[in-house]
Amino acid sequence: MQVGKFKTFFLYGSLALFLSGVGFSVYANKPTSVSADAAMNAQHQMAPIKNITADWVRPSDAELKKTLTKIQFDVARRDATERAFSNEYWNNKQEGIYVDVVSGEPLFSSKDKYKSGTGWPSFTKPLVATNIVEKADKSLFYSRVEVRSKFADSHLGHVFDDGPGANGLRYCINSASLRFIPKDQLKQAGYEKLALEFK
Fold first, then answer.
1. Which residues are identified as catalytic?
2. Origin, by domain of life (predicted)?
């Protein structure tokens, strides 16, 4: 094989490998409306876990496939990323909290949510910092900081240092990893203490 042809082959081969490797990281499902996603997710909501403790055991992936939508499972368990501007909570302006879609552990509050322009729900800080675990992510050509839930070990998204808050952080989170509980339903859902945040 001639050198020029080999370089071309190598270039296209490398590009193909790269695209196949990261293709799953951006969820490539057919675009759906946010309302359609919300309706589908509403049918696959797990009951909140009240007073979750260290001895709580996450359901098996086989069980989760039955209780979560495909995108919820792919994001939370397979580290996929949903489409920007086409997910359930990116533009949600209701007051309430966001909990883990698997465990129900509280993660973020609407009080810390802001319009980042990225197309994903963005927060300046966690609601319960101890429920967030940070991990180094080197899946792309540069390092990022992944955030996961403590108990369910769900992939949530990433945290960046370009946020507007006092700490300068932006938690860029997938809607599919979250379940939103409006403030007027917190007590009923078992989050009575957190309901005090909105009084």
1. 172
2. Bacteria
